[in-house]
Fold this sequence. Notes:
The complex is a heterodimer of chains A (349) and B (633).
Chain A: H1 6-33, H2 44-102, H3 109-127, E1 130-131, E2 134-135, E3 148-152, E4 158-162, E5 165-166, H4 174-183, E6 188-189, E7 197-198, E8 201-202, E9 208-209, H5 214-218, H6 231-244, H7 255-311, H8 315-337, H9 344-347
Antiparallel strand pairs in A: 1-2, 3-4, 4-5, 6-9, 7-8
Chain B: H1 7-31, E1 41-48, E2 67-75, H2 79-109, H3 125-139, H4 147-208, H5 214-230, E3 233-243, E4 246-255, E5 262-265, E6 268-269, E7 272-279, E8 298-299, E9 305-306, E10 314-321, E11 338-339, H6 348-357, H7 365-370, H8 380-401, E12 403-405, E13 413-414, E14 421-425, E15 431-433, E16 436-438, H9 441-448, H10 450-453, E17 458-460, E18 464-465, E19 482-483, H11 485-489, H12 513-523, E20 526-528, E21 545-547, H13 549-589, H14 593-626
Antiparallel strand pairs in B: 1-2, 3-4, 4-5, 5-6, 7-10, 8-9, 10-11, 12-17, 13-14, 14-15, 15-16, 18-19, 20-21
Helix pairs in contact in B: 1-14, 2-4, 2-5, 2-6, 2-13, 3-4, 3-12, 3-13, 4-5, 4-6, 4-8, 8-13
Amino acid sequence: MIRVTTNGTLRGYKSSLMRTSNAVNLARTKVLTQSNYTSYAEDPASATQAFKLRRAFSRANAQLDSTTTLSSKFSSACDALKSVKSDLADGQAKISSLAGLNDANASGRQPLGEVLESSAESIVQIMNSQYGSSFIFGGADSLGDTPFQLETAGDGSKYLTYRGVAVDAAEGTDEYTQLKAMSQETSYVDVGSGLTEVDGELISSSAFNGALSGISYIGYGVDEDGDPKNMASIMQKLSDIFGRCDADTGAWASDQDKEDASRLTEKLTDSIDEITNQWTALDGQTSYLTTSENRLTELSDNLNEQILGIEQVDLASAITDFSWAQYCYNAALKVGNSILSQSLIDYMN
Amino acid sequence: MDITTFGAFTTARLGIYAAQKALNVTGNNISNINTTGYTRQKVDQVSLRVGATNHYASAFGGTTGSGVLVTGMSQFRDPYLDIRYRNENSSVGAMDAKLGGLEELSNILDEVGKGSDGNKGEGIMAAQFQDLRDQLAKLTGDQSTEDEFLTLARSSADSLVKLMNNYAQRLGEVEKNQANGLQKDVSSVNDILKNIQTLNENIQKSEIYGDSALELRDQRNLKLDELSQYIKIDVTYEPVSVGAGKTVDKLVIKTSDDNPITLLDGDYAGQLSLKANDLRKNPAYNPDAVPADTDDPYLDADGNPTADANAAAKLPYALTLSELKNRNGAALAGSEDYQFSDTELYGSLQASRELLTETGEFTTADMAKMDADATTKRGIPYYQNALDSLARKFASVLNAANTGYLQDSSGNILKSGTTDILAKKNTNGSYTINGTDYATLQDMIDGEGTNFTNNAKALGGVLFSNSTNGDDTSGITAANISISKSWSTDASVLQNSFQALEGKSTVGSSDNRNILHILAQFDGKQDYKPGDMVTDAADGATKFFSGSFEEMFTNIEETLATDTKSTTTLLDNYSVSTTALDSDRDSVSGVDLNDEAMNMMQYQKSYSAACRLMTTLDEVLDKLINGTGVTGR
């Protein structure tokens, strides 16, 4: 510069002071907001990354919510199956049927039949348990009517239905087809397994099937002997047979009844084994959900940490920056005090 | 010849006069030290020598000058610095105007640091998208047909579309503000041109009378500096004869471009006018020609002349310069109206224009022909289009996902109220109805008409429409997107599934496959193409972004932020350059107190010396007159 003029010096000072003041303001804002940036334009790369992480964070939390709800539902389902298996099937029905079959004192067969009937009814009640407003074992229609119902046939005998279809339908019938379809119903939930669709079709491994179809646990259809596979139906049938026995002597109504009772008791034992297997499988699924819950909680925490790492300032460095900016500003002010220094005019006589 | 006996008094007098004048100028400089635009003045003086030759001249006598002559006052000014300063200033103006507009947009679209609790920074629109997804995810947990949860999902969607409406409306307000701002800028430019025109007149008059009118020049330079922010200009001074052998400088202002257009020529100045929707005019066409001009009045997008207004290229926010006129209304010979083309100007006027007109990727083929860089310039219309694009895609994807017909587990369309198959779905995805094959469901609906629609059971329905009064999905934009009338009156329009239960003609109450499908749409990538919004877009079929709805919104924010950041950096650079150049100008033209103090001392001494000369001459002459030839008296 050829000449440093009075106004040139002032302009330079004003411009520098403004910059220093801006720097203090920026440093102060960082300390006050505790944010590395206060606008997208300040750091587009970090802001984009933070929004991306926030989306993932929101997804993880939603998945965690879904998983927690599902996990509770599955736990309730496990509890229900446990009651069915241990308390009713093992504890009452199996004992009653074996007692009715083998006890020398056969006069108690009719009361045993009643125990079996009430066990069957209890199983139906338990399998109709609700979680919230939905039926735990309602399959894909869990908000509809009560799934299991004991209906009375024209001849007075009782039979079990699942969502309006008799569960003891023989293979090849429409009812059986319906039952089979119902036992395979799905209701997938996003539990953080990478929900994906290909050509509009869900990849089943990318979500978790939350539908619990009651008949897939306690059985449906009939076997080659024409006996029901359903546990409650077996109990009901046994109860009917025991009910037909002589009230005083306990004698079988017919040899066929005796034979049936023996066979059905075996099948009851088999169905208890089957429900044990199902229970184990359900327990495995519940454990998976619990693991997912833990994983999602951890993921959520990690994401939150990452977001904070991007967005939040390191307070120590922010305060240091602020102190330095403040120091520079004070120094600039100090210089300003003498910026209008004396000129030659002040020394003229 | 030497000076006469008393001539030396004139030398002293001229010396006193010059010193006095210089002191006056020094005083003027000191007084104006804080006057904006003031240029330091100096006294121009020459050494006076009277009559070099005459018949009394003696070859033996030495000749001396006759003192000092003040020839006038002049300014310390470097025209080259002015040119550089004004060039940079037009860049400052351009970036400043652009940044102003982008910051207004950022107030709406930048969601950093915003959020429901004001501090968390999860954003507003971004958070609402997430909320809607969360509400939908909740429906998958055996609640897909529960009214209270369906209502929650609908309320969340309603909030989201209302946010879109709000953003669109605010973007519209920014557009209005910018349009008003541009109109005001045009008025300011016109005022400046008129001011300079008046100053030119006055300066010329003063010059004719021998006054260099330095203060008026300072005012004019200030106005030129001001004008340079709005338009990049070239300023030239041309000598013009005013008769009697006298010339004065005429100021000419032209746009700084390959095709310079004269904005002002001495006493003649043009005025700018702004037209929001104009057609591109043919510069060769003269509407006032007699006989009528054979040229066509318009240019098409390729720059070819055309007489058809419909074929003419559109020029939004067109600036037209009127013919140059003097203050009496007389036009400059050869001057005529001139419409600036789309990219001809530079400065804040052009930056404001670009904010109002540039559509980035949504540029029409016609606009792209006029400006090859148009697809990379993004103004308010770009952000409006991008937001509209998001709204339209969001509505169309979710509407499509929620519209369908009752089908069985194999995808066959069922007859309404029965479990019978109406249309069989084939393995390749096509449908067969009554022996006729259709490639897609839509083809079948179109081909079969009521034969299909009356027999199939339609489920779900449109979720979003272009108004709350109906289910019309045509022309959905961010400004009009609404919850459809059907959905607003019945929350269960959100369809949980289209698949009938086995052996039934109804859908399972907790079958959530369609909700999950909608969720998958939230996470899936959508292709955004300019052609979705602008039918005659230059690159209509080329996707400019592929991502989820939320990613698209972040992309809009990011695009704005990147532009804002680079504009801020450029503005900083230009501002620093301008400040440096201003200081450079000041180092030449500015008043410095030390300088003036030195001048004061110097001129005071020269004043005293001239006075002393007069005293000396007086004493010398006193000796000559009164003390000579009086011997013995």
